[in-house]
Structures
1.
Amino acid sequence: MKIVSIVGARPQFIKSVPVSRELVKNQITEVLVHTGQHFGQNMSDIFFNQMNISAPSYNLNINSLSHGAMTGQMLTEIEKVLSLEKPDLVIVFGDTNSTIAGALAAAKMNIKIVHIEAGLRSFNMRMPEEINRILTDRISSYLFCPTDTAVKNLHNEGFQQFNCSILNTGDVMYDSVLIFSGYEKKPPFSINEDFILCTLHRQENTDDPEKLKSLFDALHILAERIKIILPLHPRTRKKINQLGIFNKSSSNIQLRDPVGYLEMLYLLKRCSIVMTDSGGLQKEAYFFKKPCLTLREETEWLELVENGFNFVCGSDPEIIMSNYDKARKTSFNFNIELYGSGQASRLIVSELLK
Ligand code: UD1
Ligand code: UDP
């Protein structure tokens, strides 16, 4: 069996590792295609180096374009790769533009698609990720879901009528945490006893000046009480520089460049609380038994909210502060298995071999 796997963005490098390892174990040939969506040392290379991912067979180098242009150019180039490689299956991960481009290229060539992290929904059609997920799910043959909620979402949309197999395998990101959590690495900056680990990069926050300003107001208020470490996605750095909304005298906020996965695991292990608009980080907070304040209006990870681990805050400083106080006062019992048992990639590959 020959598989082409498509990756392009930071979370996809991380999700691909346990799956690639499982493919190797089962002697399945995998051809890795990097679309180039994320690029450079701290958004791409560091992940390949730290996690020992073999160099991609193809790097399409497509990035920094509008959604349509990016997805369109990826579609053209991935089609060329698939014509050359003639794989039996194409694997795509998550919900980025690289995901939908890979899936669409495969679907047009009648190659079966494997969607890892299928079935997630925010029910917010203004998010580019929501469009990417729904369309990718609809044209995939194997829908590997991380949660029961994701399976239910697909059932509610009538996916039983379609010719596809749907399986809750648990979350491949948990597999990755289990592989790498003994290898954390201290980042090249000072770390305090008690700090919030924060990340911010979602389009709905970065591209709305009012929201971004409001979020930074909240960070400045919070920073009077606790240190904040904020490894910043390049798009957020660009925006805050343009808008001049970061108060440089706020010494309790450490704005840093993006860090590698091993440094992120180090910070997750030591922080008191996570604050983020990232999808992946919300789950990682839970894997490391930390509460999470989600800087969005909704989340796809409902089970974290239902179990009281995740506080959906939006961007209003008052709501963020009151949830921060609530999270600090609560004692959490994280001993419940929400994302499988770290066997997601094994289950995925054994299903593909059936
Ligand atoms: C993408 C995904 C998002 C995911 C995120 C993971 C889509 C629609 N969005 O968002 O779902 O949460 O990746 O991090 O696919 N940039 C750089 N260097 C990089 C990457 C991006 O400078 O390595 C800058 C570029 O100016 C680019 C902007 O960030 O135009 C946005 O990048 P893009 O790839 O469009 O989306 P992300 O915000 O990274
Ligand atoms: N991540 C990282 N360095 C950073 C920020 C994030 O290694 O500076 C990791 C994070 O731990 C998680 C993944 O990248 O595993 C999530 O990616 P991101 O937040 O960019 O995307 P999303 O999950 O929102 O799609």
Note: The longest helix spans residues 67-85.
2.
Amino acid sequence: MRLSRFTLNGIKQELVCEGDRRLLDVIRGDFGLTGTKRGCDNEGYCGACAVIMDGKAVRSCVVAMDHVPEGAVIETVEGIGTIAHPHAVQKAFAYEGAIQCGYCTPGMVTTAKALLDRRPNPSEEEIRQAFRGNLCRCTGYSSIIRAVQTAGRLMSGEVSEDEIRVDTSDGTFGKRAPRPNSLSKATGALRYGDDVPMPQNTLHLKVVRSPHHHANIMSIDISEAEKMPGVIGVLTAKDIPGSNRLPYRPPGYSAKLVPTEPILCDTRVTHLGRPVAVVVAETVRHAEAAVGVVKVDYEVLPRHETPLQSLREGAAPILSEYDSNLMVTSHLRKGGDQAAAEQAIAESAAVVAGSFATPRIAHLTIEPDNAMAFVDEDGRITIMSKSVAVHLHRMQMCAALGVPPDKLRWIENPSGGSFDSKSVITCEGYVALAAMKFRRPCKIVYTMAETILVASKRARVWVNAKLGATSDGRLTALVYDFDLDAGGYEGVAELVMNRYHKCIGGAYTLPKAYGEGRMALTNSNPFSSVRGPGGVEMALVTEVLVDMMAERLGADPLEFRYQNAWKEGDRANWGATLDCYPYAGMLEKLRPLYLAATAKARHETTPARKRGVGIGGGIWGCEMDGGDRSTVWVELNPDDGVTVYATWADSGQGGDIGVVTIASKALGGLPPEKVRVVSRDSSLTPNSGPSVASRQTATTGNAICMACEALLNAMREHDCKTYADMVRKQRPLRYEGAYVWQSPAPIDKDGQGVPWRNLSYVLNMAEVEVEIATGKVNVLKMTSVVDAGVIHNPLAVEGQCEGGMNMGAGFALWEAFEPGQTDSLLAGGIPNFVNSPKTECHYTETFRVGGALGGVGLGETVMFGAPPAILNAIYDASGARMFDVPATPERVLAALARG
Ligand code: FES
Ligand code: FES
């Protein structure tokens, strides 16, 4: 025990604590300054906990109080500025769009201030080095670099705030308006799940997890654990009153699939880390101590690591609900059957082929997963978590726990990133069950290792594909097959699997196509969405083959793409024509940039460090497949502003600014401060659907427009100009917008029909350098050209493009998840300040008739072109043709050796 004396945010403090207590725990726990975040497991690599101590940025999670100098001066994000009086650094982060989910932001702000106090005008390279210990999953780092430089200019007086402030007095539409909550994130005021004050009597949970990939649960003995100090109880599947199965199957999908994923495993574990019991205790330490005392007797079963293994003759079904591990087989047949496509390939003047493999990928959000639950004064179980689908998850949880819908309320906490990780239920069932059972508030916070271990993953896929073309450069046919690793539960895999068939082929004219996809269970993490599932993988396959074909025919890669790009009247792989055809125009926009980049690469390449340029593109449907709906309410407020009620989750992608911008425009240019958003509570909002599939901009955006129109119509009809008029005339103040899109031709067994109303498009260019001796690839710059219709907020769109390209670089070069081995953000391969490329963003804005105010979503599309662009650039630089990702140095060296 020791007495520490220090100054914290300008106030002298004394504290008695253990010498090995971490400064982060003191700041958050003893002083309640929750602006300082925890990302990694006190391992000092993520920078979310950075504070300034005696003028230097330090990672407070690794600083023991023994090492805090007597009289140290410590500054946290709260001490730097407040929402009312933000510091220049905090303003710059908001204005430059350097804040998305905002979870990394306090650590970035403190690191920036420490740097700028020392070095007022740092270069980009100096910033990258100063921030090498800070991670961000959302932004791609470019906007943070700009923010630090802008902050420096603001601090020195080189620019004034008036010069960078955005005038939103007539609305925000089309302007680089910062997000509504960016200052609360920049000042540490916004409370994420682990920051929310909870009562003294809150119980803390830890999960007992399977150490096996595949095993039967023979018995669970909780008797010793229940006697451990501080333990209130240990819950197993027997304590669950409902079905204990989370239903994922959306309406219209295969009747074969039944709910199989339990909240707590009862008879079998299907992958490493599955939950078999939950310890509920007075403190986290008590719960942790008891976890190891729960005795579980397993009968270990053979692990099916790959679909090849789980589908071999005699392989036992992983799930007892099915008689086989083959979940779904699906097809694409365009322009005839398989024989017709094969014949077209055989008759083609040129044919190229490849076998591709892509890995499991973790979401790698900087905030660890967490949830709370309590029984409210009306007897409702209230869950608070990072869910991006509060109504859907409520329905699923009610079924699994056996709770009537009116007895469960779900609130979305501010979220430190999702990328679809919270499109599925994770830890919420444990806290809800414990709150039901013990009638006390309950809380669980995963470690980062646990978050990564147990979450669903981007699925592995193996693809064989061949592409044909005529001698004059017209594509003739595509034939492919793929095997998809669904992991231990079927989850949303069938729904997402359809996207693989739709995204292969990209925006290129293919008279004939045949494909077969198989989805199989294995003993690994279940398939889930991770930013554009299927879109990323199939763009990689398509664009590498297109590049190979261009070379085979002696054509320029860009001009070959231009020749084959969808033109007016062309039919997509699913057989339908489209409302617009922007891809050729995007290639035109890229052409001068590509020519300049290629010339630069040829000039700068050396035998030891070869430079090259590559292109990749992709498409994405911006609705739920086959039909979508969203309901929104808009209510007139006493100040003649409005409140918009919509479940457009904001996990960093910009849901809040999306609602504000669309409502602002639909109401004739209402300033943003007059548009309030209620979006995070199942009990206060109508169902606007989940924030997945980049669907919200078009679907909920249209619903917002409809609700605003209903309000304006009512005001016009009754000759009302203000709230006061409406009240005086006793008119309703709340209006509903219910947007429904139903496919005019649902997808058939051949994959033909109309899956979506809207598409968004991306085109990326990568400039890389390959170190020939080591195989290391440096991505020097990524450029994007995007078309998602009319841009509502250029700052938000730029942020998505930059972040998407960066995540694409991670997919291409560094990221992979292996159960039992990948236990940190670093091990998962998250891009960082040092290896992330410079970025440049361009747009074509083709009005979308089915979009909201002409625009559609692009949060996923923006990632698709980067991986193939990088692989094609590696080939352009070095001649190493890559088919597997990540393109590690070892794989690049092997490809170089193959020639
Ligand atoms: Fe401290 Fe990650 S570096 S929480
Ligand atoms: Fe940096 Fe989300 S904004 S992690």
Note: The mean pLDDT is 96.
